[in-house]
Amino acid sequence: MSKPIDATDRKILNALIADGRQTTNDLSQRVGLTPSPCWQRVRRLEREGYIKGYTTLVDFQQLGYTDTVLIDVTLNRHDEDVLRKFGTLVAALPEVMDVSLTTGEFDYFIKVAVKGAEGLEDFLFRKLYKIGGIQNTRTSFVIRSLKDMHAPSPL
Question: Which of 4, 76, 84, 101 is most open to solvent, judged by the fewest CB atoms within 10 Å of its CB?
């Protein structure tokens, strides 16, 4: 069982959310620890699953993906194998930024980076719809993102 996190652990997590590339020395100064205990806490947070990993945030617009679209998907069957297979196949598509199995009117919510309307058409007809099992979809273009899900947020 994981040890509960304390205020110092929360400071460490917040500091790493803001900058996952900082050195242990920088991190320890930010949270008020010496480097060795700070490093030990980070390793414990990783081991216990509080820190899942480290990643790089890429600016998709710089790569030519000018638009983000949100696609709600309803499948024509809802047994566990169909849901799992669809989710796995969609998650493997390189344009997909986020995919979630949801409750409510739709089964899946997919966030996709595309190169304009033609890129969306290509994604839908050459990739998503070829997976099969889709009853219907609803697609919306993102006009402006007000908060990035990877942006710092206090714990």
Answer: 4
